[in-house]
Design brief:
Helix content is 0%, strand content 62%. The chain is mainly β. The strands form two sheets. Strands 2, 4, 5, 6, 9, 10 and 11 form a seven-stranded mixed sheet that branches. Strands 1-3-8-7 form a four-stranded antiparallel sheet, with no helix packed on it.
Length: 119
């Protein structure tokens, strides 16, 4: 059974930084894309950043220049370094992975970690 577990959320003042981590575990053959999504109250879940197994990255316009996504393929981990945080970055951040396991190619989600940025 595949599981994604996030860590690193919390409360921070505007202008501060946080680093999110996510580890994928279980019977994983390979991981294609890993990414971070967020959902603010009353809003739809949106892509924040994603990274392929070859290192290609994609960012939401709202976080470009402030957030950096990276991954450790050997450890099945993905990270999100968030700098210059703004109150509008507040939300639940979810780790996502598109991977191959015994059950085929599927999309997996973590349970989410809360990020709150105070003004």
């Amino acid at each position: 059974q595949v599981q994604l577990v996030e860590s690193g959320g919390g409360l921070v003042q505007a202008g501060g930084s946080l680093r999110l981590s996510c580890v994928a575990s279980g019977s994983i053959f390979s991981i294609n894309v890993m990414g971070w999504y967020r959902q603010a109250p009353g809003n739809q879940r949106e892509l924040v950043a994603a990274i392929t197994n070859s290192g290609s990255t994609n960012y939401a316009d709202s976080v470009k220049g402030r957030f950096t996504i990276s991954r450790d393929n050997a450890k099945n981990m993905v990270f999100l370094q968030m700098n210059s945080l703004k109150p509008e970055d507040t939300g639940v951040y979810y780790c996502n992975a598109v991977l191959r396991s015994w059950s085929g190619r599927n999309d997996y989600w973590g349970q989410g970690t809360q990020v709150t940025v105070s003004s």
